[in-house]
């Protein structure tokens, strides 16, 4: 009986080392962080502290706004809709918050 205990004794640290730790990941609270970022953009837009920041209301969902900045030398006209034959050049840049 003692031999079995002596054989199992070295395995004891393996069972204690298998403790599950919960680490906070980089993307755990992504939704709250994104909503806070959009709210901060809305506050900057409402306060007019950044003159380059503009917004457009989404035509499908009137409660949603799309924030953007004009590029230098661009000819964006306010409150105009594109025609079917219009073309645009776009540059997308994403960022992780």
Task: Give the structure's gist in a few sentences.
By secondary structure, this protein is of the alpha+beta class. 31% of the residues lie in helices and 10% in strands. A two-stranded antiparallel sheet has the order 1-2.
Would you write up a description of this structure?
With 97 residues, the chain is α+β, with helices and mostly antiparallel strands. Helix content is 31%, strand content 10%. The protein is built from 3 helices and 2 strands. This is FKBP-type 22 kDa peptidyl-prolyl cis-trans isomerase. Keywords: Isomerase. One of its GO terms (molecular function) is peptidyl-prolyl cis-trans isomerase activity.
Largest sheet: 2 strands, antiparallel
How are helices and strands ordered from N to C? HHHEE
| Helix/strand structural class | alpha+beta
In total, the number of strands is 2
**Distance between the terminal alpha carbons, to the nearest Å?**
59 Å
The mean pLDDT is: 77
The percent of residues in helical segments reads: 25-40%
Strand content: 5-15%
Outline the low-pLDDT stretches.
none
Radius of gyration: 28 Å
- Principal-axes shape call: rod-shaped
Strand order of the largest sheet: 1-2
Count of alpha and pi helical runs: 3
Keywords:
single chain; 97 residues; alpha+beta; two-stranded antiparallel ribbon; 3 helices; 2 strands; rod-shaped
